[in-house]
Amino acid sequence: MFRLSGITKTYGQGEARFEALRGIDLEIPRGQFVAVMGPSGSGKSTLMNILGCLDTPTTGEYVFDGQHVERFDSIQRSLLRRHHHGFIFQGFNLLARTSALENVELPLLYRGMPRKERDALAAEALAAVGLEGKLRNTPSELSGGQQQRVAIARAIVTNPLVLFADEPTGNLDTQTSDDVMALITRLNTERGITVLMVTHETDIAAHAQRVVRVKDGRIDADSLPPGGA
User: Fold this and answer.
1) CA-CA distance, 155 to 169, in Å (whole number)?
2) Residues 120-160: pLDDT tens digits?
3) Is 133 within 8 Å of 120 (Cβ atoms)?
4) What whole-number distance in Å separates Cα of residue 195 and Cα of residue 145?
5) Do residues 63 and 69 lie in contact, with contact meaning Cβ atoms separated by under 8 Å?
6) Mapped to the 3 state alphabet, what secondary structure does 8-73 carry?
7) Which residues form the ABC transporter domain (predicted)?
8) Could you give the CA distance from residue 113 to residue 116 in angstroms, rounded to a whole number?
9) Alpha-carbon distance 8 to 31, whole Å?
């Protein structure tokens, strides 16, 4: 599904020039669950942003599902994100005064889908994450784990090919983190959604089928996690 060849990313010029990525070669097949790890400043977030079409490479080839994404303009990248990508963030990014159902509907609203159809799909997504009884609750009426489940429902309501998770358990306690990771793993195994997750926690990375470690803008290791699948 993903193929990166010689990907570099440079920010700034002159003395302010910084090479965030220094020649990344990476292939990720459809349906795989991959954790990306690395210290701060290693380039892991830049790599994920490029894979998620939130940023563009300076040089190199990025092929997604047969399409050369490095040739896309901003509108084409936006359409790719809208139709094929789902995103989960550490901070949940929910609208505070909006119900769980309405938060999940947002990606469908951007597609111009009629209200009745949006309601049905959003309710189905919330049921899939175990929140069928919380449709009308606002984020302030939900626990941290429930808020992250709403965020996951929002990410999967469009039936994406890929789920990008950026530190999805960073604001959660241990038990809630385990519950969220069990849910993400189930979405991967039962729905075949490709999962790309950034994490700095080894126990969270152990849920993945594969761990890619990034250091100084290069892939430092690519292997199965300790105790992983």
Assistant:
1) 15
2) 999 999 999 999 999 999 999 999 999 999 999 999 999 99
3) no
4) 19
5) yes
6) EEEECCHHHCEEEEEEEEEEECCCCEEEEECCCCCCHHHHHHHHCCCCCCCEEEEEECCEEHHHCC
7) 2-229
8) 9
9) 25
Q: Closest Cα partner for 182 from 156, 155, 145? A: 145
The CATH code that applies to domain 2-223 is 3.40.50.300
Domain ranges of the chain: 2-223
Kindly tell me if the per-residue pLDDT of 177 is higher than 80: yes
Q: CB burial class (10 A; 0-12, 13-18, 19+) of residue 68?
A: exposed
Phi-psi sector, 54: left (phi>0), alpha (psi -120 to 50), beta = alpha
Please write the tens of the pLDDT for every residue from 70-95.
999 999 999 999 999 999 988 899 99
What are 157's strand-pairing partners? none
